[in-house]
Each structure stands twice: as C-alpha cells, then as structure tokens.
C-alpha cells in the first residue's frame, strides 16, 4: 500500500497487509484473545454494577479477576494468570492496537517464519516466562519499598506490543514506513528498523510521566530484552531458500541456524547513536561474563554469522562495515593504486 502527498509518503509492503488467509496459530491466538478479553470486561462490569449499588464510590480499577489478571498478591493461588494474562487487555487503546498488530503483523510473521509452533512459543511460552520474571521482580522490590502495591494487576501482555516491532525490524529492516517531506527540519525517512526504539521511547516516557507505575516500566523493558534474546540466541527455524547462502546443504543450514547471528541484529544497534558509546562497554562486559566466562550461551561461529548476514542482506539489511574491515579495504585500495601507478 502506497500513499503520497506533498507532506508525506506512506509505504507498507503488500505482503505485510495480506490477511486473506490468517495462519493457524495467529487465528487461534486472536480468537482466544477476543474471548478472554471480552469475558474479563463483562465479568468486571457485572461485579462493578453490583458493588456500586452498595458503595457508589467503588473503584472500578480495583475490581480484579485473579484467575486471568496477574495480581502479585494472588499469584500463589492463581498461577494460571501467568499464562492467561498473555491473552487479555483492559485498556481500549491496547485492545485495538494489539488486535490489529496480531491479525496483520502476526499473519505476516507466521508466514515468514513458516512455523505455527514458533508463533505459539513466542507469544505463549516467552510471554509466560517474562511474566514470571516480572512478578518475581515486583515481589522482590516490594520487600524494600512500600510504594509497590501487590493488589493491583500487572499487565502481562506486552509480547505483541513490544516483541513484534523487534521482529518487523528483523524481517523488514530498511523498508520505509513513513517518509516526512515537510517541514524540512522534521523531514525524516522512518523505517521499520527504527520502530522498536520508537515504541520503547513512547512506552517508557508514558509510564514515567503519566502513570508512575514502575512495575509496568520493568515489564516493558524485561519484555524487550527477553524478546530480543530469544530471537538472537534461541529461536530455531528452517530458513527459506536464499541463493546468497554460503552453503547449499539444507540440513547443515538447519543445524547451524539457531537464532539470528547477523551483525545488524546486535543489541547495540537497537539504540540511538548518541548513547551507543555509553552502552557498548556495558554490553561487551555482559557478553564477556555470560558467554566467555560462564558459558551460559554458546558463542556464534563464523559460519553462523556469515549465514545470518546473508539472510539479513536478502531482507534488505545494510552490511555493517567494522573498523578492521574499513582499514583492510583502505589498505587494499592503496595497494591496488600503487600496483597501477608504481
């Protein structure tokens, strides 16, 4: 879909908007999401109407359903909420955004992954593991701060809102979404690779300035790092045919490709250039501890990086030239010039 005016250009790939046939996992998740979110709204509204007859000042936000909603103080009695909260939302804007994101974006992702199992794992398994971490961190912080309330539900469904933009960046890195033409000082070519940083900025500022809910702020960032880490190190897919791959043995590719070892998918490239010098030594230290010292993660081999780079470039990602490569290219250029003009 393309739209052009004197102010902006809108460009969204037709493959992204193709929802003629919603894949199986996306359809299943969407149906469960609609059913559980609607059920939660109806039950809470019914309880509110009954309670308001006795107490007109009853707070609707304090009416909870712990079997679906992730209430830290009730998590021991209702551990099912760690899973079911992946399929519910209580805010109207989030219901609309997540539903559109799921039906349109989820269909696109599942078709590209060619795996209903991976779609279910990403939303259900990764989302549930993230919820466990969020609840544990909230309970831990409550031991040191009385400001953390354990009777208020935590939003356990950020995987679609936070995780999907990371996948869009992976699959459509250099594809332009919006190209602002005027005014000139705001002219910007907004691409999918900028989407995760944009979403994280908006969500972070919103929580800090308006909602002051720091447990939710932790939830947003934990979901971000967990989604990236899964895609980077753990996801296993049968890659689509790519003529630029350095091998033609499908079995070797399948065994080698675990995660995304491409240079462009490094965590540092999700952040603005302004803070990269500050973050780089931190990320390098974490990598040296997690991978090198304790061996928690298996380091990528050169063949992993080469294959992932080839796939990333086939998706449109620009090749990252390191300082060493630039020096090598410059040395070769100087050598060629000397050979031509001795």
Write a concise keyword list for the protein shown above:
5% strand; single chain; four-stranded antiparallel beta sheet
The share of residues in helices is: 55-70%
- Following the backbone from N to C, one meets helices and strands in this order, namely EEHHHHHEEHHHHHH
User: How much is the average pLDDT?
Assistant: 83
Spans where pLDDT lies below 50 across 5 or more residues? 247-254
Which radius of gyration do the C-alpha atoms yield?
A: 23 Å
**Globular, elongated, flat, extended or rod-shaped: what is the shape?**
globular
InterPro entries: TMEM115/Pdh1/Rbl19
Keywords: Membrane, Transmembrane, Transmembrane helix
Subcellular location: Membrane
Main location: membrane
What does this structure look like?
The structure is a single chain. The chain has 342 residues and is mostly helical. It has a domain at 2-235. Helix content is 56%, strand content 5%. It is built from eleven helices and four strands. The chain has helices spanning 24-54, 81-84, 92-113, 116-142, 159-171, 195-211, 214-234, 250-256, 276-293, 302-314, 323-340; strands at 2-4, 8-11, 176-180, 188-191. The longest helix has 31 residues, at 24-54. Residues 247-254 have low confidence and may be disordered.
